[in-house]
């Protein structure tokens, strides 16, 4: 009786072990494939509880569904001028087709990263080789990777990988050429600055000359208008004076003489040279004779 119970327990444990080896789960952030004797028999793209044959008949390989990031530092590339550049860049990628990814890389993330690095470095090499050093340094970082991104994406797709982004983090020069390149670029920028200053000075002189011409034209027009206004006013004043003179010539002559006396007589240190019998003292003499 005891032996039967022991046998039943052993059979139950065996069934549970076999049953547990036939069940597996896939998380939200995972891809999975089922491999049977080295061949892929099924690919799983949805999370949940799945079933398989027990090992060693079936084996399950799981891969990361999320975006992966790999950095590559101190990679050397040659420019169009045959100058060495040291470039640091990083790559964002994710597994797009788990079956193709497994077949091309055996599911090893290090192998996938290395193959992806070779693809991206070859693309950056071609882009850098088509440009001079000043063009690379002064251009946007995205311009270095933008031209090669499409070709690199197609190459990565062969491995079941989706290339998300490629970004250049830093561009450096070897120490032995950095100083010479810096001095050469400094001289180039100095020449450009002098050229721009010369053009600015020329434009400044043109604007000043144009402003002076407008000023002269405005002042000339203003003086002309002022002379016209003064001439009209003088003509009106002459007409008024003439009308007043014709109305009472004696009073008008008397009034003008008083104005002349006010302006000429009674000032200190002034010398007046006139003849006593002249017209200037006409009204003074007539007033004295009446007294």
Characterization of the model:
This protein is of the alpha+beta class and about 290 residues long. The protein is about 60% helix and about 20% strand. The strands form three sheets. A three-stranded antiparallel beta sheet has the order 3-2-5, with no helix packed on it. Strands 6-7-8 form a three-stranded antiparallel beta sheet. Strand 2 (about 30-35) and strand 3 (about 40-45) form a beta hairpin. Helix 3 (about 110-130) crosses helix 5 and helix 6 packs across helix 7 (about 250-265). The longest helix has about 70 residues, at about 175-245. The model has no long low-confidence stretch (mean pLDDT about 80).
Helices and strands in order, then pairings?
Elements: H1 2-21, E1 23-26, E2 30-36, E3 39-44, E4 48-51, E5 58-64, E6 68-78, E7 84-95, H2 98-105, H3 109-129, H4 133-138, H5 141-157, E8 161-172, H6 175-247, H7 249-264, H8 282-290
Antiparallel strand pairs: 1-4, 2-3, 2-5, 6-7, 7-8
């Amino acid at each position: 009786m005891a032996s039967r119970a022991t046998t039943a327990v052993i059979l139950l444990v065996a069934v549970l072990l076999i049953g547990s080896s036939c069940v597996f789960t896939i998380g939200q952030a995972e891809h999975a494939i089922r491999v049977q004797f080295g061949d892929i028999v099924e690919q799983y793209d949805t999370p949940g509880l799945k079933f398989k044959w027990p090992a060693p008949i079936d084996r399950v390989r799981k891969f990361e569904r999320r975006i992966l990031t790999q950095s590559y530092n101190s990679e050397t590339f040659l420019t169009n001028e045959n100058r060495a550049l040291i470039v640091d860049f990083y790559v964002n990628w994710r597994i797009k087709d788990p079956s193709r990814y497994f077949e091309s890389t055996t599911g090893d993330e290090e192998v996938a990263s290395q193959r992806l690095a070779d693809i991206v470095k070859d693309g950056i090499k071609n882009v850098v080789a088509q440009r001079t050093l000043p063009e690379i340094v002064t251009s946007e970082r995205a311009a270095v990777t933008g031209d090669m991104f499409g070709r690199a994406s197609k190459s990565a797709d062969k491995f079941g990988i989706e290339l998300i982004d490629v970004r250049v983090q830093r561009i450096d020069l070897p120490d032995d050429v950095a100083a010479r390149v810096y001095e050469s670029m400094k001289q180039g920028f100095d020449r450009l600055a002098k050229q721009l200053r010369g053009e600015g000075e020329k434009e400044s002189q043109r604007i000043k000359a144009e402003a002076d011409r407008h000023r002269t034209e405005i002042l000339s027009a203003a003086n002309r208008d002022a002379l016209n206004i003064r001439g009209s006013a003088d003509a009106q004043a002459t007409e008024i004076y003439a009308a007043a003179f014709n109305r009472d010539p004696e009073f008008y002559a008397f009034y003008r003489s008083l104005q002349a006396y006010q302006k000429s007589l009674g000032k200190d240190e002034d010398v007046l040279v006139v003849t006593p019998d002249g017209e200037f003292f006409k009204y003074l003499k007539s007033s004295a004779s009446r007294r």
